[in-house]
Amino acid sequence: MTVPLASLNLGFRQNFLRYDELTAQLHAWCEAYPTIARLRTLGQSVEGRELWLLELGEEPDRARPSVWVDANMHATELSGSSVALAIAEDFIRLHVDPASVSESLPHALRERLRGLRVFVLPRVCPDGAEAVLTTGQYVRSNVRDRRPHFHRPHWVPQDLDGDGLALLMRRLDPSGEFVESGDVAGLMLPRTLEDTGPFYKVFPEGLIEDWDGETVPDPYFLGDNDTDLNRNFPWHWEPEPGQEGAGRYPTSEPESRAIVAFVTEHPTIFAWLNLHTFGGVYIRPHGMLDDNKMNPSDLALFRQVAEWGEQHGGYPTVSGFAEFTYVPDKPLHGALADYAYHQRGAVSLVCELWDLFAQLGFARRKPFVEHYTHLSRDEMQALGRWDRTHNHSRIVRPWVAVHHPQLGPVEVGGVDSRVGMSNPPLEQLPLVCERQSAFFARLAATAPSVELDTPKITSIAPGLRQIEVTVRNTGYLPTYILDSSRPLPWNEPLVAELLGHEGCTLVDSRTAKQPVGHLEGWGRGLYSGAFALFFQRSSGSVSEKTLRWIVQGEGPVTVRVASCRVGESSRHIAL
Question: Class assignment of domain 450-574?
Answer without folding.
Answer: mainly beta
